[in-house]
Every structure is written in structure tokens, then in C-alpha cells.
Amino acid sequence: MYYGIMHQKSVLPVLRVFWEHARRYKMAVFLVVFFHAGVNVVETIIPLYYKQFFDVLASTSTPTNSVVQQLFFLTVLIASLYGVAWVFRRISQFANVYIQPHVKADLMRTSFAYLEYHSYKFFLNSFAGSLVRRINRLDRSFETLADHIHYAYLPFLVTFPIIIVVLFMRHWLLGTVFMVWLIVFMIAQYAVTAWKQKYNIALAAKDSETTGVLSDTISNITTVKSFAGEEKEYSMVHAITEELRRLRYKTWNIDEWINTVQGALFIVVEVSLLYTAVLLWQRSLVTVGDFALIQAYIIRAFDQVWHLGQTMRKSYEALAEAHEMVEILNMPHEVNDPARIKKLVVSAGNIVFHDVSFNFNETRSILKKFNLSIAGGEKIAFVGPSGAGKTTITKLLFRFYDITSGKITIDNTDISKVTQKSLRQSISLVPQEPILFHRTLMENICYGRFNASEKEAVEAAKKAHCHEFISQLPDGYNTFVGERGVKLSGGERQRVAIARAILKNAPILVLDEATSSLDSESEALIQDALSVLMKGKTVIVIAHRLSTIMKMDRIIVMEGGDITAMGTHADLLSKSSTYKKLWEIQAGGFVQ
Predict the structure, then answer these.
(1) pTM score
(2) Exposed, middle or buried: residue 30 (CB in 10 Å: 0-12, 13-18, 19+)?
(3) CB-based contact 394:358 (threshold 8 Å)
(4) Alpha helices of 372-453 — where are they, by DSSP H?
(5) pLDDT of 389 over the 60 cut
(6) In what order do the strands lie in the sheet with 427-430?
(7) What is the structure's pLDDT at 4?
């Protein structure tokens, strides 16, 4: 009972997703089904004329003109039927060639479109490599299943009813033997395949996990080499691939036992049908042509049933591989736009946190009844020890997470009541560790504003002081920066990120330690560029280096998810022991 429920839960959602995409091409689907069914009808009828052909041959010992003409007529008729089948097959194949690339592309687009709107938290909990593999396996699974329907299931559904009817018409005993064998075979095949599905799902999940581990190790290869962790990583990969090997061996071994039993059943039915036919021929109830008919049908039936058994198991494996991605497609987005779409329009840039509470999970509370008002155009900085909640506040402002309770407003508009796109278009971010696309420098800078001209992008680069190093590169702005921007230094990546923010020119600016990776000379230049960028904007700075925030309008000290002090640099030196302690540590050791 449990396996039946699990089987249904894993198969039906996948089939539903595939059909939703295939039905967009109804005419092509009709052409595939109708003409491929026609091919199998024609090819199943042809043995009837072979029966007549051999009956004519067996009925006479002398080849008279009338017998020869009859044989030629049957030859032409058989050739014509093969010609019709050839035309039908070509129409079906061309329609199939049209459908599959379209649906595969649609599935990949749907998967990516739905995936990228999952929450920030979803991606924190998922391996990038595993997600990419799931997308790829979904469209590959559709191709596999579509081929199986086309080449195995449809021919079976069309061919076997005709074979059973014809055999019953020749003699009820022939039809009964064949039909009983077929029913027993199909019930056993379905039961074994459904039972094996749990192993297919486990194998697909372990395959995704293995891909995630490999991707995680390769993307962190610098850390691996820095800590001489090659042996540790190999041992992890060895362990997980060993689990994968055991699952593969188990599923493939089950397949071989099924094939063994299947082959024995084929021998049984062939011998049974031929034995029955001999008994009937002995009583003059069947002819020599019937032996040709039976043998043709046995060969056709064995070929289709053998492939059907193989195909059914491969289909369930394909469905199991698609199951993981379909689970994601059926998983509701954690952060959603409101039902009534409204765009955020920022005028003054006032930001207010009203009794905001946020739990990262059920056991970890980050903010409790947090309140803060930021006036439009005000420059504030958050300081405090790691884990105080500084970066969390900016992530909530971007609505990467939905708050547990309370409200965040921008110009008196609740940010949960506007589209995420309009909210994020109103805020520029320069992160502490900018990660760039493996695209050109020009494309990375223009990510700040997609419709920006090349001239505007270069101007932003000059203001961010990254034009100097870009102009010295052989390919200039057409230089590819490598995966995650690894071909650039940390300071260069940060200046590109600042150029991107300058180009975006949003009314609200968030700087997450935006000069942390710069040398002293570059920092001085960037501080000048940022002072220009910050004019007329509401600015929130997350700072660890206090020397960068001395001129802020207000500095807010946070500890344990709450505000413990706020004021100017001079105010806090006199009234905040935490701020004073941080300042003395940096002024004495790092900032002279």
C-alpha cells in the first residue's frame, strides 16, 4: 500500500508537468500519435496477406497462370501496404522531431524561471551543481519518456488488440493462450517495476547529491589546496560514490533478474502457441498460412514485449530522475508578490522598521521587535560584533526573506505589498564579497542597468576607478572575468561592483563594507567616488572598519539583534562602551 502511494506521488506529478508542456503543440502531438498508430495498424495487417500468400502456395502443386497472378497481386498489395506504412512513419517522425526540441526547451525555461524566483533561503540550502543537474535531467527525462511512448507504448497498444482479435478469429484456443500469457506477463511486469521505483528514486537522489559534492569541492578548490585537503575531499567523494555504486548495482541487478524471467516466459508462449497450432492443424482447423501468421505475430509480439519490459523500467527511472525537479516546481515560493500587483515608487526614501521580528528558523531568533526610522537622504551605518543582525537588516530590506512579524515601509509603503522587482530596482547594493558573472566586464557593469549605453558604463567605471585597470587589459571591457570573477583581484571585483551601483543610481544605497578589499590608495579614490554616489540618497552602510563611517549622519551600534546605542562618531565615543572599545582596537592596531 505504501509503495503504491509513493509510486503514484512520484509519477503523476511528473506526467502532469510533461503533458502541460506537450499540449502546447496539440497538432504535432496528433500527427505523431495518429500516423504512428497507422504505421502499426498497417504493419500488423500485413501478415494476414502473407498468410494468404502461403495458403495459395500450399493449395497447388502446379503454378498455373491464375495462381501466379494471384501471388503477384498479393505481392503488389503487400508492397503497397509497406509504402503506406513508410509514408505514415515519415510524417510521424518529422512531427516527433518538431515536438521534442520545443518541449525540452520549454521545460528548461520553465524550470529556470520558477527556480530563480525561489527564496534566498532556498538557494542557501541547495547545491548549485545539484540544481543544474535537476534541470538537465528533467528535459532529458521527457525525451526518454516521449521516445518510449512513441516506440514502445503506442505500438503495443495498437498492435496487441489486433493480434488478439486475429488469433481469436482463427481459433479461440490460439487467442486464449496468447491473451492469458500477455495478461500474466503485464501484471508481473507492472508489479515488479512499481516495486523497483523506490530504488530508482533513491538512485536519482544519490546521483544529485554526488553531483553537489563534486561541484562544492571543485568550486572551493583554492581552499582545498590551501589546506592540503585533497585526501579529505577524495575520501568524501569515495564514500558517496560507493553509495551510488551500491544503488546502481542493486537496480541493474534487479533488471537482469527480470530479463531472465522474461526470456523464460517468451519460450513458454512460443512453444505453447506452436503446439496448439499443430494440434489444430492436425484437425484441419488451421492452414499452413496460419503457421506463417502465428510466427510473424510471435516475432512481432516478442520484439515489442521485450522492449516494453525494458522500456517500462527505463521509463520509471526517467520519471524518478525528473521527480526531484518536479518537486521544486511544485514547491511554493517562500517570498511572493502580492495578489494585487503594485510597484514601489520612491520619492523621499524614508525607511521605517516597525516592531520587526525575524526568525531564521524555528529555533534561531535574529531580531525581536526591532524599531528604526531612517529619514530620506540620511546616511547611517550599522556597527557591532559579528552575528548582531546588521546584514540581516539589509537582507530583510531587499525582502530576500519575509519577516516573522512587524512591518518594513519605504515612504509609508509596506514593502510586502509591492513587487519584489520594483523594490530591488530601488536599492543599489555593493556587497562585501562581490561575485561576478563569467561574462565580459562590460556586461558585468551593465548589470546595474540593462539598457545603459557603453558610454554610460565607461563613465561609471571611471567614477569607480576601475577604468584604469580595465583599459590596460588586452581585450579591455570585452575581457571575460572567469567564473565568479576569479580572474580579477578582490579589490578589482569590488570596484566593478561599485561601478555597477553607480550605473544603477537607485535612490537607496546599501554598502556592505564596500571598501574592505581595497588598498589604501584605491580606498581613498573610492571614498571620493562613494561620496559623490551617496549625494541625495538614503544610505545604509554595514561597517567593520570604523574609519570609513566617521562622517555618517548616524552610527547605530547593534548587539544581539537589537540597538544598544546610536549617534555620531563623537557622541558614541563618549557614551557607548562597545563602540569605544571597537574604535580603540582599530585605532591602536589597524587604523593609524
Answers:
(1) 0.68
(2) exposed
(3) no
(4) 390-397, 420-425, 441-445
(5) yes
(6) 427-430, 508-512, 538-542, 379-383, 554-559, 562-567
(7) 39
